[in-house]
Write a structure and sequence with these properties.
This protein is an alpha/beta fold. It contains 22 helices and 28 strands. It folds into 3 domains: about 210 residues, Rossmann fold (3-Layer(aba) Sandwich); about 270 residues, Glycosidases (TIM Barrel), CATH 3.20.20; about 110 residues, Jelly Rolls, CATH 2.60.120.260. Helices cover about 35% and strands about 20% of the residues. The chain is elongated, with a radius of gyration of 29 Å.
């Protein structure tokens, strides 16, 4: 028989959803916005045994033999909880919240607002709670869980249930008591349907609990406890990091050899020591590894390539540990060069929606956790709004009407328009709120597989224009509050500074971006995992940029701010790199994707990987499949060793070809080999490398948009961003460059 679990807000339903998940696993359906048709059809199909969420009980009454469970709470206690929750969080697109905030409502004004009247009764609808399988009472949380365990065959350990949204008001000296008896009586009269429902539910609960054969000592029924029994403290990432002896995280991303879209298909063991030694010498103490979301697909499609990835992951983790560096995973990276088939965006949408692909993702996350947890220097992993919601907020909103209808149905988004809205309509705000909820649900699901999980929350200007055509600021405060971790990742870049490009505007932008966290969850610390101040990319040329004088002013101010509000930061890169679209340009997967002429030979062992070319040999390859279209104008980058008198020719179309001799190659500032790069103009169609005369060793071939620098060590600047930061942080955190 299907079980219908009604989650009435502020009654403990988020915590209870964890219990249901532990019991039902993938057979639990979460309904926080599904249409009636979609929800009932999903339950009728038999893939789910239980549905839980915010909905009126009548929604699922068409299901045969359905059983109901719900939690009720003293109406005044529930109103207080709701009231303080709204005081700590911001919902600017909610009309009632805007009145609440700007008119500075008292609790009484809040309690008598018509929209909040008898909310518990509204959720119960026409259901007779006498016929409910179990009625839980929030004030008797432990006893209610005993009843659920006994009645439903659950096996929940109450002592470890995380209370997801437990307010901290009582600990902060606030009171849930109303001393004015007339006011209390008036509120109960105004919410009399809820009060009568609560008293009825309390009677039903007491009668069933008293019949339990192995119950604990019955509570004193005359007076309910004000709050649920205390539980064990949630795991603290801040505490864990301090226990590891890390005062502040100073991190950078580790790439393969090129833009991070190629993190793993351009991964090279022969340069790992050079890169890591440089990173440590520059004063970083933490490496962030990009772990693509499509590991799950690679795992299914190619055991050989999946095992290669795992071997290389263990290799680089070992190298990191050898240097006593710490490590963090960015899990679910949405840009990669893995040799997988299928639509990556559609896969991400399915992971977000909670389909079969989410189970694949969880299985991959679990294996990654088992690997990471074996290294003493591993700290934690995080998922990002950008990675996990990229398809939902970008591609899906730009699709055809038919596709937007299909995506809405897949996500369970009940739209007034019948489809996912475009970014130029008012409903887009509601849609962003909806996907924020989906992000939170995904977070808790993935945390089951990867226990030390945090999240990066997008807090910059939302990538859409408002109805007036101007850029809109959107703060994802729901994610700040709902993700169960005490470190929240964010990012900041100087190209996000709007208006006059000054240090003061940069300060304002950074504080604005994080104000929601500082107000909503002050106990949480920020980790700015992309702190980008030096941006050298053509696509950002039209944005304001700080002059060196203004950048110096800003970085004089920044360390103190970071010290107060953060547990550290990371730069997006520590060297210049090519925004590379070449698939398998470092031959990470052998000759996969390349067509050979002559007798090219791949040398691949634990120390190095390169292609031997002789006179007349050539190889022809392609771009990363999901990077479309082919480039028009860009940069060729080649790392190779060639004999004197030899000529290496790189052809990108019948009209674009550039030849290099040995004299053209220069010693790389970070790599062991020799490098040459050249700009080209025109439309590319393929990549063909051929050799005339002598022999050559080809380590890497890349074709990309440009050589770029973002945020970290910059070999083209007299004074790098990192040098700026070290001057201030050396005093604050005792870091020496």
């Amino acid at each position: 028989m299907p079980l219908i679990s009604i989650h009435i807000p502020k009654t403990g339903g988020i915590s209870f959803s964890d219990c249901l998940y532990n019991h039902y696993k993938h057979k639990l359906l979460l309904d926080y916005g599904l249409s009636k048709e979609v929800g009932c059809n999903l339950m009728r199909q038999g893939a789910h045994d239980c549905v839980h969420g915010h909905f009126v009980a009548d929604k699922y009454m068409s299901l045969a033999d359905a059983e109901y469970v719900l939690w009720l709470r003293n109406p005044i206690q529930r109103l207080f909880s709701h009231y303080y929750f709204w005081k700590k969080n911001k919902y600017p697109h909610n009309l009632a919240w805007r009145r609440f905030y700007f008119e500075e409502w008292s609790f009484a004004e809040f309690a008598f607002f018509p929209a909040f009247r008898d909310q518990q009764s509204k959720f119960v609808g026409s259901l007779d709670i006498n016929n409910a399988k179990v009625v839980g009472i929030t004030e008797f949380f432990n006893e209610s869980m005993e009843l659920f365990n006994a009645t439903m065959g659950m096996n929940t350990d109450v002592s470890v249930i995380p209370q997801r949204r437990k307010n901290k008001e009582l600990a902060e000296g606030m009171s849930y008591e109303i001393k004015d008896k007339k006011l209390k009586a008036a509120i109960l009269e105004y919410h009399k349907c809820d009060y009568q429902l609560y008293l009825k539910g309390l009677t039903i609960f007491r009668e069933k609990y008293d019949c339990l054969p192995d119950r604990h000592s019955p509570p004193y029924w005359g007076r309910a406890r004000e709050t649920p029994s205390p539980i064990s403290e949630p795991f603290s990432l801040q505490g864990f990091i301090k226990d590891k002896g890390v005062e502040k995280l100073i991190g950078t991303y580790y790439y393969g050899d090129g833009w991070p879209i190629n993190m793993w298909d351009s991964f090279r063991r022969d340069v790992a020591d050079t890169y890591l030694d440089k990173i440590k010498a520059d004063g970083f103490n933490t490496i962030i590894l990009l772990i693509p979301n499509f590991v799950a697909m690679l795992r299914e499609q190619s055991e050989e390539h999946y095992n290669e990835f795992i071997d290389d992951l263990r290799f680089i983790m070992g190298k990191i540990s050898d240097r006593n560096l710490h490590c963090i995973f960015r899990l679910g990276f949405a840009w990669d060069g893995f040799p997988i088939k299928g639509d990556r965006g559609a896969f991400n949408l399915s992971v977000l929606a909670g389909g079969e692909e989410r189970e694949l993702a969880k299985a991959a996350f679990k294996e990654l956790w088992e690997i990471a947890n074996g290294y003493a220097g591993f700290l934690y992993g995080f998922i990002t709004w950008e990675d996990m919601l990229l398809f939902a907020w970008n591609r899906a909103t730009k699709a055809t009407d038919d596709m937007r209808r299909a995506y809405a149905q897949k996500l369970g988004y009940e739209s007034k328009l019948g489809m996912i809205p475009t970014s130029d309509v008012a409903e887009f705000y509601d849609y962003i709120e909806f996907v924020d909820v989906k992000f939170s649900e995904l977070f808790y699901d993935l945390k089951q597989a990867f226990p030390r999980l945090s999240a990066e929350v997008r807090v910059d200007s939302t990538p859409f224009n408002g109805l007036d055509g101007n850029p809109q600021q959107y703060i994802h405060n729901r994610q700040f509050v709902e993700t169960d971790c005490d470190i929240i990742g964010t990012y900041f870049a100087t190209y996000m500074v709007h208006g006059e490009p000054s240090a003061e505007r940069a300060k304002f932008s950074m504080e604005l971006a994080h104000r929601a966290l500082l107000q909503a969850a002050p106990q949480k610390k920020i980790f700015i995992d992309q702190l980008l101040l030096v941006i050298k990319e053509k696509r950002f040329e039209h944005f304001p940029k700080l002059s060196e004088v203004e950048l110096q002013k800003f970085t004089d101010w920044l360390p103190e701010w970071l010290d107060k509000y953060s547990c550290g930061y990371a730069t997006w890169s520590f060297s210049d790199y090519l925004w590379d679209i070449t698939f398998n340009g470092s031959f990470r997967y052998g000759f996969l994707g390349w067509t050979l002429e002559g007798s090219p030979f791949l040398v691949a062992n634990q120390q190095q990987r390169y292609v031997e070319l002789k006179h007349g040999d050539s190889i022809q390859g392609g771009r990363i499949e999901h990077f479309s279209p082919w480039l028009q104008d860009g940069v060729i980058l080649v790392e190779a060793e060639i004999d004197e008198g030899s000529e290496l020719r790189v052809e990108l179309s019948s009209e674009i070809a550039i030849s290099f001799d040995s004299a053209a190659f220069l010693k790389s500032p970070t790599n062991n080999g020799k490098v040459v790069f050249a700009e080209f103009t025109g439309q590319t169609e393929y990549i063909k490398v051929s050799l005339s005369g002598g022999n050559a060793k080809l380590y890497r071939i890349g074709v990309g948009k440009e050589i770029v620098s973002t945020g970290g060590y910059d070999i083209n600047l007299d004074k790098s961003f990192f040098a700026y930061m070290m001057e201030g942080l050396n005093k604050k955190w005792g870091v020496n460059k």
